[in-house]
Hints:
The complex is a heterodimer of chains A (195) and B (267).
Chain A: H1 14-22, H2 29-48, H3 51-67, H4 78-97, H5 110-120, H6 126-138, H7 141-152, H8 157-164, H9 168-194
Helix pairs in contact in A: 2-3, 2-7, 3-4, 4-7, 4-8, 6-9, 7-9, 8-9
Chain B: H1 3-14, H2 20-32, H3 37-49, H4 60-92, H5 95-119, H6 123-147, H7 153-163, H8 171-183, H9 187-199, H10 204-213, H11 220-232, H12 239-246, H13 253-266
Amino acid sequence: MCKIHINILNPLSDNELMMKVKSGDIARLGLLFERHHKSLFGFFYRTTQQVELSEDLVQDVFEKILKKRIQFQGFGKFTTWMFTIAHNEMADHFKKNKRMAFSSLDDYPEDRTKSEQSAFDQDEKMEELKTLELAFAKLGQEKRQLLALCKYEGLSYREIGEIMKCSEGNARIKVFRALQELRIIYQNIEKQIVI
Amino acid sequence: MNDDRFYFLLTEYLDSQLDEGLELELKAELVRQGENVDDLENLRRMSVSMNRWKIPQPSERLKDNFYTLLAAEQQKQDNLVSGYWWRVLSEKFAFGLWMPRLAYGLVFLLLGYFAGITFSPSASQNGQIATLSAEVDQMREIMMLTLLNDPTASERLKAISTSHYLNDPDEKIIRALLKTLNNDPNENVRLAAVDALLMFSGIQEVREGLIGSINHQHSPMIQIALTDGMLALNEKEATPALQRLLQRKNLNPLVKTRVEQTIQKLI
């Protein structure tokens, strides 16, 4: 019986694509960009809450990927490597611009509340969610990054440990403490609103 | 309970990943430490509601900037590669080196020829293989046409990669590939369609379709791919279309340079 070779139908994995980019077929980076730019944008947006800055940082990450392509070994997951670069870019950015956080409800970016208002208008828990986002913005940048990676980008604690240069156990402790701190900030904001 | 175990259970609980037995173990430990179990439940609820945070989409500016970066890097690399091969050829093309290599090459060519005669299949086997090959081609064509209409870009990319294995594509396939090149919303899919069509450049309809597509495209990557394709085919008929492309006001500077160079070489 004729056996059709079905491998041709399987798209290349991230690591295979990156190895091709490394060997000189850099057009393949376009496919990696298509696969991951939204996820990277989400990571930066949740950490900075600024659209334009997040787009610039995504661009910086892909520029670094191109520059560092020779260093990609293909042993770990491509996304872990990509988020490690993203984490370093974020850290550099914060070093240059000091800590970014919104000190009160008035500092909450206006374009965000306006642009997203309509999406949440029908949601009866909109206020609760807005308070939560505001509390998130008040966390330190590393904690925001940790929670963005864990809660939104779906990375495992082992991968987060690799990115943050700590053990898996340590990553779990850091994520738990970041959530505890978020809860405290959230409760404080709620009290301010009530007063 | 040690710290590793405790935080493992805590984080798994917050991610709603604990089974009943482990949840009981965690709650017992919290009670033993004098912690409030309800606090943890509140934390879990907050952690779950975080998933409802919606964020805006990145703008087209991000894609434009990325593909401009990629095109610039590609050009830099092309320049490096052409310089490299020129150096390699000029260094390696020495009499003392290529004569023994040529001799080895001829020996292996002759060995291959005799092995081919000895082990080649009979005429009836050849007939069966041809029939099977035609059936496989037909299946691939059906699969490709189905996948090209899939809403996900990765499926459409799979469809196009299937075309690389078609020996003699029929009119339907060519038309489907040209339609993809001109209308697909995803840039990578369109880029893959250019590659696939260039393989069938012996077909007049393909060459005309590629030329016609030049002024449909707005992405610098696709414009460069088509321009390079025209140069590789030495397609002089493409010159008017390339000249029209040059008239565009917002044409990417890298594309402009590449198109100008191509027109000069084609004329």
